[in-house]
Amino acid sequence: MSPWLKVAGHRAHLRLAKAYNGRGTVWETKGDLVKEIAEFDQALRLNPRYIGAYANRGLARLRQGKTVEAEQDFKRRINLNRELKPLLKQRIKEVKAGRVMKG
């Protein structure tokens, strides 16, 4: 396979991951946590470094009451982008105080 085709294929995966992440947020507005998380899972299969999908899936898992899994997603996001650590620590405090936010 030519290097150009590999790059084009990689870019297609990134675009598809973004689309699945967007679909997950649509399911969030419809209140379907199972489908929402499935879309974020697919986004992460296509792009395991997609920090937005980790955050979204983590928030969905919190709404499911799966705090351990949510924390794992937040930690993965922090490991991919250390600059987000203070923001995510604040979000975790808010969640523990009972204020689960979107995004």
Task: Provide a compact summary of the structure.
By secondary structure, the chain is mainly alpha-helical. The chain has helices spanning 3-30, 33-46, 51-64, 67-80, 85-96.
Describe this structure in words.
The structure is a single chain. Helix content is 80%, strand content 0%. The protein has 103 residues and is mainly alpha-helical. The chain has one domain: Serine Threonine Protein Phosphatase 5, Tetratricopeptide repeat (Alpha Horseshoe), CATH 1.25.40.10. The model is unreliable at 1-5 (pLDDT under 50).
Give a short account of the largest sheet.
Answer: none
- Overall geometry comes to globular
Total number of domains: 1
Amino-to-carboxy terminus distance: 38 Å
The DSSP helix count reads 5
**Beta strand %:** under 5%
| CATH architecture designation | Alpha Horseshoe
Order of helices and strands: HHHHH
Unreliable spans are 1-5
In percent, how helical is the residue content?
A: over 70%
- What's the alpha carbon Rg, rounded to whole Å? 15 Å
Main structural class? mainly alpha
- Could you tell me the CATH topology label: Serine Threonine Protein Phosphatase 5, Tetratricopeptide repeat
Query: According to CATH, what is the class?
Result: Mainly Alpha
User: How many beta-strand elements?
Assistant: 0
CATH homologous superfamily - what is it?
Answer: Tetratricopeptide repeat domain
Mean pLDDT across all amino acids: 83
